[in-house]
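Lecture 7 notes: from sequence to structure.

We start with a single chain of 352 residues. Read the sequence below before looking at the structure.
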Amino acid sequence: MSFAPMIQRCIMSFFRWWFRQLAGLVSARLLRVYVEAGEVAVLEIVDDTFVLYIRRRGVLTRAGHGALPDLKQAMDAVPNLPPLRVLRIPERQVLRKRVSLPPAVRRDLGKVLVYEIDRETPFEQAEVYWNYKLAAQTAPKDKLEVDLIVVPRRAADALADRARAMGFSPTALEADTEYRRPTYLWLETPNPLQYLRLPPRVKPYLPAAYAAAIALLILPFGIQQARLFLADRSIAALESQARAASALNLAANRRMAALAFMGRSRHGESALAILAAITRVLPDDSYLTAFSVHGGQVTMAGSSEAAAKLIGALAASHTFRDPAFDSAVLQSESDDLEKFTITAKLAAQGAP
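Now the structure, written as tokens:
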């Protein structure tokens, strides 16, 4: 089973959707100019007969004529019948009115003419198909001359329904004017992609064109994904370095805090000197597990074979005053040592 036709249909569906979205960004006037410049199939119905024309590059040629029921057969006999099809409206059904407007309304001429239809014609805007052409500038420069072309919807829809019944679906009405090109009164908004026809010699190159178009569409996304991948890797590397730097900074801060604490002056004695004094006072069977200095008061915790003797040893020292147990002495379960917590004031602080 070949997937090439399916892939081609999917790609064409995507491009049709894409071009419709792009077409919505282009002004309706530019779209109509684009469509009018292409090839057109023109149908003229007179009573129960028809004349079929083909307009290519502004040249109108007859492609078929006959009784109206034979229209479908005549259309099938025309090679490469243009997909853009218009219905020529009889001259008696076309109403023309020249309107003089201030030059300032040129930019919003279409919106202004909507109100002029109600005022200058016997119809309301919803009852007609209409278009306009700028007239040759023969009036004073303070006036803008516009030819308003109007066709009643009821008559035009009846004629268009007859054409559709015979297989000819018009997109616009065509009204002859004094200008080089006829005026189109659109029955629906033109879609340029619908009327785009490629020459036969171009079709063998369509797969390569599709591949190039897909590459052009995918390439920006691929580049963006590659940039995001590289950015994620760079961010991950920087995060790892940042965590390592943060850990080093934290360790350094702890060391600096410890050094600052040990070297900080406390009433004439540094923490290191106070710790040395405690070490000299305590007997060999005693050792500390915690030590802190705050507000001239020393708190020490540890274990000893005879914790009660420590109070007298500290009181005899010239460094400490008023030693006392901060909590009850507890017997250790793992050995014969007694656990203690003692607080004492620094001698330099003096008695309270």
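The chain has a mean pLDDT of 79. Keep this in mind for problem set 3.
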